[in-house]
Write a structure and sequence with these properties.
24 helices, about 525 residues, single chain
Length: about 525
């Protein structure tokens, strides 16, 4: 990075902060609702953008393009099929959450089951975010940032030192952001970063095709279609190590439902909307965006294979492509977008962690008489404490064996499926059983752990396919046979905001579903993968 790149990098970050600061001046961030939920003031576009940036990080930008470099377009399942779950978020889950006026996913679990089950879920979320998700986002994000822009070479230091410095800076900036402005400041910053990520990612794809075509976009496209049609097949083999095609309808679908419909750090952003209509608009926006992700999160990996051949390490394919096609003057702009992507994922999880601890433990357990302002103050203190903990933990990810790193990535499989089953039963059954929920958790954790030992070669998405159905059966059985809460009055709970649905939510969701199906037809042996 040259001097111009560094200056442009800093100016973009400062501009986005100033923009977000002025957009959020009217929100009372000293109240718990203002700090944790942005005063329930977000409109649809902002909700959509901040969910996108909470989800997207450099792990996906580099990791999925690296996977497609090896396996081809089957990797697009992580992006495109997410849109199906996001449509269900808009159609089914958000109306339920808003109807009950909950602040967290665990609030809903307490309403339908009991406080102990609620706290089990909260602890699992908090533990996962602190030990696995946030440190991995910071460390791997810093690693990739350094690979993309070569800061170790620019500063004349070792790669490890550069990564520690970068992860520390990103973490501290994220902590300051959340401490100063709460969720609303991050949400409005994300609305700019998301646009930049989309434009920057698409630009890399276009420039890569031009490079492949030796200065001709259409020649590059012709070469891509003619040279590697097998890599344009989105239907992975039954025994694929990436995404076996049967799991699209089972394990992948269940995982998407968990992540997009029951994951606190995602749902919290939708609950910050001013009403149900705006939340649904935001969800539909995310649904369209996730489909577009195949063009900058997956396709560049296939293009990189066409340019470089198969001699590059998987995770270096995208950095090599960026170094090959990105003009020097644009490095600072793209760097700011990548920086924002890492920070947004980190802060999204940090905000969810602080919210869960403050509302589920500080208020009901530690300080039962706490006012809204005291809860918000406790949240700010926790932001600093937890943020520093994660910054300290992040560099130690480098000491983990590669296999353990992969296990950390799959850690949420210990609780994601029973959590989804608990919520689905809670939505539709007047009878629920807290005992059944606990038994399902124990059953799932034991069998999932055993699967790693007994059938380690079976893809975990196949394992999730079976376990989710078993978890659902256990919870439903106990809810019907041994319910602790019988004949639940769904009308008892009142929403805190207007719950009038968005009048276009049905047909826009159907459009998304049609595009998802069309994408899988296009990227199949029927069309492009001949």
């Amino acid at each position: 990075m040259n001097l111009f790149s560094i200056i442009s990098f800093i100016l973009v970050l400062v501009f986005i902060y100033i923009y977000a600061f002025f957009r959020t001046r009217s929100i009372d961030k000293k109240s718990s609702e203002g700090y944790f939920l942005g005063g329930r003031s977000l409109v649809g576009a902002t909700v959509g953008m901040t969910i996108i940036m909470t989800n997207l990080s450099t792990e996906q930008l580099v990791g999925q393009n690296g996977q497609s470099y090896v396996a081809g377009m089957e990797v697009m399942a992580w992006e495109v099929t997410s849109s199906v779950a996001i449509v269900l978020l808009a159609w089914v889950f958000l109306p339920k959450y808003f109807k009950y006026g909950v602040n967290t996913i665990s609030d809903f679990i307490e309403i339908r089951y009991d406080t102990f089950t609620k706290r089990i879920v909260s602890i699992l979320f908090i533990f996962t975010y602190i030990v696995s998700f946030m440190p991995v986002v910071l460390y791997s994000g810093a690693l990739i940032f350094n690979d993309l822009f070569g800061l170790d070479q620019y500063l004349g230091i070792s790669r490890t030192t550069a990564v520690v410095i970068i992860s520390t800076i990103i973490g501290l900036v994220g902590v300051i952001y959340l401490f100063v402005g709460g969720l609303s400041l991050i949400a409005h910053s994300d609305s700019i970063y998301a646009v930049g990520l989309l434009l920057g990612g698409m630009t890399i794809t276009v420039l890569a095709l031009i490079a492949l075509g030796e200065n001709s976009f259409f020649t590059g496209l012709d070469k891509l279609l003619a040279n590697t049609p097998e890599k344009l097949n989105a239907w992975g083999a039954v025994d694929s190590a990436m995404v076996p095609w049967p799991t699209l309808f089972l394990g992948m679908f269940f995982n998407n439902l968990y992540f997009w419909c029951t994951n606190q750090m995602i749902v919290q952003k939708a609950l910050a909307a001013k009403n149900l209509k705006e939340a649904q608009k935001g969800a539909i926006f995310v649904g369209f965006f996730k489909i577009s992700g195949l063009f900058f999160l997956v396709l560049p990996g296939v293009i990189a294979y066409n340019i470089f051949g198969d001699g590059i390490q998987m995770d270096l394919a995208y950095p090599a492509l960026v170094a090959e096609v990105l003009p020097n003057w644009a490095a600072g702009l793209f760097g700011a977008v990548v920086f924002g992507a890492i920070m947004s994922s980190f802060v999204g999880a940090l905000s969810a962690t602080v919210t869960l601890f403050s509302l589920d433990f500080y208020k009901p357990v530690i300080n039962k008489q706490a006012t809204n302002r005291q809860i918000a103050l406790a949240g700010r203190v926790l932001t600093i404490i937890i943020g520093i903990m994660v910054i300290v933990i992040a560099p130690f990810i480098s000491l983990f064996p590669q296999g353990l790193f992969a296990v950390l990535q799959e850690f949420n499989g210990l609780y994601s499926m029973p959590l989804l089953a608990i919520i689905v039963v809670g939505f539709y059954s007047k009878k629920t059983s807290a005992l059944g929920a606990k038994i399902a958790f124990i059953f799932h954790i034991v069998l999932y752990a055993l699967s790693k030992v007994v059938i380690p070669d079976i893809h975990y998405l196949y394992v999730w396919s079976v376990l989710f159905l078993a978890d659902l059966a256990i919870i439903y059985f106990y809810s019907q046979k041994r319910p602790e809460k019988d004949d639940f009055q769904f009308e008892k709970y009142q929403s805190k905001v207007d719950i009038t649905p968005w009048k276009h939510v049905r047909w826009t969701g159907l459009v998304i579903l049609v595009i998802v199906v069309a994408s899988y037809v296009v990227f199949s042996p029927l069309v492009l993968a001949k």
